[in-house]
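Hey L., structure's done. Input below.
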Amino acid sequence: MHILLSHQSRVPVFAYGGVERVIWDLARGLVQRGHRVTFLVAEGSTCDFADVIHIRPGVSWNAQVPRDVDLAHFHFNPEEDLDAPYMVTEHGNTPGSPPFPLNTVFLCRDHAARHGSDQFVYNGVDWAGYASVDWSMPRTHHHFLGKGEWRLKNLRGACRVAERAGVPIEVLGGKRLNFRRGFRFTLYGKAHFNGMVGGQKKFDLLNGSNGLIFPVRWNEPFGMAVIESLYFGAPVFATPYGSLPELIPDHLGCLSADGEELAEAIRSKTFEPRACHEHAVRAFGADKMVEGYLAKYAQVIDGENLNRTAPLLSDADRNLAWRA
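Output:
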């Protein structure tokens, strides 16, 4: 098959870039299975294993899709009908968004259900692109991984949990003093802020961690931070919202909307790092994601609709319950 993958950002990605990383690994997996892939992505994108077309702003999506593709896979809602078979993956929770096309899939069972759908494919990554886990490395801290400036990620709550548990926390993706979305200053002295970090430094911080503290206050659509942390042997201490109960088995972490309960779990419970790693590799590798999407592609190309009615977000609740 010839598959078009489209996203409105550049590829490849460095540092974070959750969606871009996912579509990059999806493309590579498709090519490894003998399919042809073309990217329709932002100016400045390059790829050594697939063709690249740069998005032309102001031109209809239909006019930008090559005529010889078997299916166009958009990682956003194009909000127009296309001549070629196409499908959409929705990656977020956008309040007030219009109905999605019938051939839309989501990132987990909960994410789909909140859009009135049962169609989802878990994100997966090519773990070969990550550093090997060093099982001899001392685990000296816990960590937070995410866009700390966004209040729904609850960086303040993560630092409060670490403080209650009496553990140092490395913050990947945040600053101690933040003005971007209102004034916030983190007082906890054992919190070390690394800003946006990628590459080997990121891998070393995750590899040296005793666990991810992730008390998000929204329905997380997926959670790349979760599977990356598990891969490096770090259990997860998080709120029970969105995808998180699907990603984190009981023996690999603790879910609670009560900060003291999370802190107590950090103080008193023991989790096996190798079990965390094995779960991430087994459940969230790129191969499983590629298999999931190939099954959806076949349905769409055969003329089936993935959903009977147009998916529409019905639950965009934010600032979900959290007791620090």
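The mean pLDDT is 93. The longest strand covers residues 36-41.

-- N.
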